[in-house]
Design brief:
seven-stranded parallel beta sheet, 43% helix, Rossmann fold, globular, single chain, alpha/beta, 8 helices, 180 residues
Length: 180
């Protein structure tokens, strides 16, 4: 199964001020995630950003905010899944069958959102270089569960070039430069 720009949505989960400092390998996570999001922006893929209990955990960190397209959708949540009763219809009404999911924490909010999306019939893709947890063991457990439940593991580079499809795409130069 191939994914294309026209049938794909990106969900960016909880890159928040009070969460990110606790993440394992946070510098790599931020750098890789910003590259992914800038690439998604260049390709014109719609983006939804979630924030878990913003009052307590803070805003999306500047490095991620700066990478986002101007027209992204911000959703506040108090459940660990973004695909909850409040947000299901918004996501469903975007009419995209493929979802790229990145963020924190892999084994909690990213996983629970992915599980609910998979159960609802979406094809969910996780670039594993763009998800993080406080402990590597938890990240690995989240990725393993994601795979067992029918999710597709990938990388930022693989997903960006698949969405670009051809060196003739107007975003190819941008994607190529981001990956270097």
């Amino acid at each position: 199964m191939r994914i294309t720009k026209k049938d794909t949505l990106a969900i960016v989960v909880d890159y928040q001020e009070k969460l990110i400092p606790a993440m394992d390998k946070k510098e790599e996570l931020i750098k890789d995630s910003a590259v992914l999001i800038k690439g998604i922006k260049a390709l014109g893929v719609p983006v939804i950003v979630s924030q878990q209990y913003t009052k307590g955990l803070g805003e999306t960190i500047p490095e991620i905010k700066e990478a986002l397209p101007e027209d992204y959708t911000l959703l506040e949540k108090n459940t660990f899944t973004l695909y909850n009763d409040e947000n299901k219809s918004l996501i469903d009404n975007m009419w995209r069958k493929n979802i790229i999911i990145c963020g924190t924490e892999t084994h909690i909010c990213v996983l629970q959102t992915a599980l609910d999306l998979i159960e609802a019939g979406y094809n969910v893709f996780m670039p594993v270089d763009c998800v993080g947890s406080r402990r590597e063991m938890d990240k690995n457990a989240g990725i393993q569960r994601f795979i067992r439940e029918g999710g597709f593991v990938t990388s930022k580079e693989a997903i960006l070039f698949e969405l670009t499809y051809s060196s003739k795409d107007e975003a190819f130069r941008t994607i190529s430069d981001l990956i270097k």
